[in-house]
Amino acid sequence: MLQTTIQNTVRCKGIGLHSGKQVEIVLRPAVEDTGILFSLHTGSGSSFITPNPNLVVATGLATTLGNGQDSVSTVEHLLAAVRGMGVDNIHVEVRGNELPIMDGSAGPFVYLLRQAGVRELSKSRKVLSVTKSINFEQEGKYVRAFPHDGFAVDYTIDFEHPQIGKQTLSLEITPDVFMDELAKARTFGFLKEVEYLHANGLALGGSLDNAVVLDDYGILNDGGLRFADEFVRHKMLDFIGDMAVLEMPLQGRFEVYASGHALNNSFLKYLHANAVDYLEERSLEPAPGKVVEKSFSPVAPDAVPAPA
To answer: In whole angstroms, what is the distance from residue 105 CA to residue 183 CA?
Structure first.
């Protein structure tokens, strides 16, 4: 299996969740072994961030990466789309200090990646594989990891709300599965929390256009849910994005209960710090006799919403 990148440069603009202001991203092809590279365009120039668990500087509302000088927020939905769609190398230019929230899902980013097309490069894909089981638990919430040839997630949430309750979903993540089962699942929040955040100058870009919002009894969005279990699907999407904050794609089977950005990152930091005990770098060589297609043309994106 060869490394991949996108075929063409694509861009989009949208509202930032935190600032409520318009921000822009540009997705560009990248060479082998680049991984995911963010370049942040600020008033004083540009700075670069290659995601790493220790560069996660905040996990409130969203995942934020920082290099000690600059930071970029709300990266998890794009990271989930990049990893979920099997893209190894990509250069993400950010004009603003956060990514656009779009519709609150990874769907618009999948649309962009499909518009860009994906092409294979000349070097084998490198992955970090879980080599033995690990149980990471905090206050009754946990992430458990096991060796597995691929990326599989068994996720459970449990909210004391009549529209959510306990939901469980198990998926083996492939590009098709990610696109069909997870990409369109939106982030969600509760009206009381949204009102508090807005009153304190936070989450100024949050609205019914980019989140599922619930009051004490029901869902406030006119269109309702995209999936009956959209809540657990979005939590799994977030988990995929948070696990993408590694230098290489992660392989393993994961059982997750009631986790969020903070616990996801704490788990990943522990895994990263103890990599010698739990992780092994592997190259996924092409199967013998496999005819390798060097490029793939963009596909008409009829399964996901278009970016603004």
So the answer is: 6
* Residue 143 to residue 165: CA distance in whole angstroms: 20
Q: What are the beta bridge partners of residue 89?
A: 5
Q: What percent of the chain has pLDDT over 90?
A: 83
Is 102 in contact with 24 (CB distance < 8 Å)? no
Separation in Å, CA 264 to CA 67, 114, 136, 293, 305? 20, 28, 10, 35, 27
pLDDT, tens digit, 9 for 90 and up, residues 110-135: 999 999 999 999 999 999 999 999 99
Q: Which of 18, 91, 234, 261 is catalytic?
A: 261
- Looking at residue 111, its amino acid is Y
CA dihedral 159→162→165→171, nearest 10 degrees, is -110
261 is catalytic: yes
Burial classification of residue 266, based on how many CB atoms lie within 10 Å of its CB (0-12 exposed, 13-18 middle, 19 or more buried):
middle
Token pair belonging to 258: 């009631």
List b or e across 1-11, with b for residues whose CB sees 16 or more CB atoms inside 10 angstroms. Answer: bbbbbbbeebe
pLDDT tens digits, 134-159: 999 999 999 999 999 999 999 999 99
Q: Tokens at residue 294, please?
A: 């060097």
The residue assigned the tokens 């905090």 is: 138
Q: Residue 98: name the closest of 121, 65, 146 by CA.
A: 65
Across the range 54-75, mean pLDDT stands at: 94
3-state class (DSSP) for residue 202: coil
Cβ(146)–Cβ(124) under 8 Å?
Answer: no
Regarding beta strands 250-257 and 118-130, do their DSSP bridges make them parallel or antiparallel, or are they unpaired? parallel
Dist. CA 111–CA 116, nearest whole Å: 9
> What distance in Å separates the CA atoms of residue 111 and residue 306, rounded to the nearest whole number?
6
pLDDT higher than 80, residue 291:
no
pTM over 0.90: yes
